[in-house]
Structure formats: structure tokens, C-alpha cells
TrEMBL record:
UniProt cross-references to PANTHER family, sorted A to Z: ALPHA-TOCOPHEROL TRANSFER PROTEIN-RELATED, GH10083P-RELATED
Organism: Papilio machaon
Pfam families reported for this sequence: CRAL_TRIO (PF00650)
CRAL-TRIO domain segment(s): 102-259
GO terms for MF: phosphatidylinositol bisphosphate binding
Name listed for the protein in its UniProt record: Clavesin-1
Length: 311
């Protein structure tokens, strides 16, 4: 029987053995961990644009995991994390109003499942979409995804991700409704700050225009991320990479359906304790007006999108 650790939530579970596997993989040593956290915390409190913001020791530890124990890389990741969140209030602060309405469904036009058990130290997330392209909203989608990333930073312990993206029901109408500025902000938040490594992105039920999606994403994410995209023609092909015990039953797995996972996720984020923590995480932003170096230019972050094509 697996012995999960105290203080966890049912959405995100891991054992002490899982934790040690992750630490061993990244070379994080318990003998110097507290010293590393102290050093990063001391740096954080001396940065004028960060000093007023809250930070927890366990959060620093998660960034040390991503940075494979490097203090300097950890500092860079944390600085980016607070900066990019400050520059994306529509993805961070907007959750406060959304969570103020307990009867509201946050997941409507897309579905999301976070598989509770770690698979070989990796967290699996499944995402699917409704067929109504007119309901597709990049801002809402990434607001919700980043909200779940915050939950993971609070409660999870992992080094890398596996994403399963169900492209059934999607069409060119969905792609044309993507807001490129919001997408770039979300990519920066995930790729340049949180920095959880992505082992694979499995695309299932891909439509004929699936290559357009990949070409579009090349404009925003690193090439090595695109190299990790695997398009599956059958569920049997997916099962060669992800065992059935880690998949919703929609995908030939043993877990609850994607809809059931989504409904459970929607209920859980309105739990008073979890909701309070998600709102508290909105305070994890920098004050860019106090940054000692040249003020960050938001225009540089989003780049130029004068022409987008789908060749």
C-alpha cells in the first residue's frame, strides 16, 4: 500500500519514495538543501522589487528541483516567475473575481485532468476541448492552467511533466481565436519561470490540419519542446508511452473520465482552504517600478505579431 505524505490534497499525491526519486534524478542533496534555501531567501529579501512579496521555503525548494540544485539558476527562475506574473494580471489577478463566484464553472469550453499519482516522477495532465470554437478563450484557458500550476507549486513534488492533448473537436476556428499576446505571456510563465521540464506532449485524435497547430506553436516555444510532440493515430500507440493505470477511461485507461476529473477539479478549487491559497498566490508578483536594473520592456516580451500564418 502506498503511503502518501501528510498535508497533501487528493488532486496531487506523491510518496516519500517519489520525492527521493526526484531528488536523486536532479542531484538535490538533503545535506545542503536547507542551506541552499536560506541563501536564496536572503537574496530574495535584498532585491527591492521582490522584498515586499511573500515567498515560502517549500516554493524555493521546488525551484531548486527545477534548477537541479543550482542557486543562481534558482534565483533567475524565481525572478522571472515574479516578473512575468506581474506582467500578466489577466492570467493571475483575474482568478480573484472568478473564485468569488462559488456557483460558477471555471472549466467550460475545455476539460482538464491532473492524474493524482506520479508516473516515474512525472505528473500527467490531460486537456481536451469542446467543438464550439466561438466559446474558445485563450485568456480563460491559460488563467485556469496557471491556476493549477500554482496548486502544484503548493502541493506537488515533481521534476517533469507529461501532457496529453486531445485535439478531437478542434478546428481552424479554434486556432484563429488564439490570442498570441496571451499565449506568449503564458509560455513565458511556464517555460521561462516555472520551468518544469516536459518529457513528452502526446497529441491524440489530431485533425487533418494538426501540422498547422505544430507550426503555429513553433513561433512561441523552444525547438526542443516541439521535438517532444508525438502525434498518435491510435490509443494503442499512446499506451506504449503511458500505462493505462495513469489514463482516463476515455483514452482506454483505468481512471475516471476526463469530464469527471474536470468536475472534481472545479469543485476542489472552490474549497475554502484551496481557494484562499490560490488567492494568496496572486501576491507572488514583483514590483517592477522598484527593479534596480533597467525596467523590463513588456514589448520585448510579447514581440511583434504583425503577421501570423499557418503554413
Amino acid at each position: 500500500m502506498m503511503m502518501y505524505l501528510d498535508g497533501q490534497i487528493n488532486l496531487l499525491l506523491y510518496t516519500e519514495e517519489d520525492k527521493q526519486v526526484v531528488k536523486k534524478e536532479v542531484g538535490l542533496k538533503d545535506s545542503v538543501l536547507e542551506e541552499d534555501i536560506d541563501a536564496v531567501l536572503e537574496w530574495f529579501k535584498k532585491e527591492p522589487h521582490l522584498a515586499e512579496a511573500p515567498i515560502e521555503r517549500h516554493l524555493i525548494e521546488k525551484f531548486l528541483v527545477v534548477a537541479k540544485g543550482s542557486r543562481e539558476k534558482t534565483k533567475k527562475r524565481i525572478d522571472n516567475f515574479y516578473k512575468y506574473r506581474a506582467l500578466a494580471p489577466e492570467l493571475i489577478q483575474s482568478r480573484i473575481d472568478a473564485l468569488a463566484k462559488p456557483d460558477q464553472k471555471l472549466w467550460t469550453f475545455f476539460r482538464q485532468a491532473i492524474i493524482p499519482k506520479l508516473y516515474d516522477g512525472k505528473r500527467i495532465t490531460v486537456v481536451g476541448f469542446s467543438s464550439d470554437a466561438s466559446a474558445f478563450d485563450t485568456e480563460v484557458m491559460y488563467r485556469n492552467i496557471i491556476l493549477t500550476v500554482d496548486l502544484r507549486l503548493k502541493y506537488d513534488y515533481m521534476f517533469s511533466d507529461i501532457w496529453i492533448v486531445d485535439l478531437n473537436n478542434t478546428g481552424l476556428g479554434h486556432l484563429l481565436r488564439v490570442n498570441p499576446i496571451i499565449l506568449q505571456k503564458a509560455v513565458n510563465l511556464y517555460q521561462e519561470s516555472v520551468g518544469i521540464r516536459v518529457k513528452h506532449i502526446h497529441c491524440v485524435n489530431a485533425p487533418v490540419f494538426g501540422h498547422h497547430v505544430v507550426n503555429f506553436m513553433k513561433k512561441f516555444v523552444k525547438a526542443k519542446m516541439i521535438d517532444r510532440v508525438i502525434i498518435h493515430d491510435t490509443m494503442e500507440s499512446l499506451h506504449k508511452y503511458v500505462p493505462k493505470e495513469y489514463l482516463p477511461k476515455d483514452y482506454g485507461g483505468d481512471m475516471p473520465s476526463l469530464i469527471e476529473f474536470t468536475e472534481s477539479l472545479n469543485r476542489d478549487v472552490f474549497n475554502e482552504k484551496i481557494k484562499g491559497e490560490l488567492i494568496d498566490y496572486c501576491k507572488l508578483v514583483s514590483d517592477e517600478s522598484k527593479r534596480p536594473r533597467e525596467k523590463y520592456d513588456e514589448d520585448c516580451m510579447v514581440g511583434s505579431f504583425k503577421k501570423l500564418d499557418f503554413d
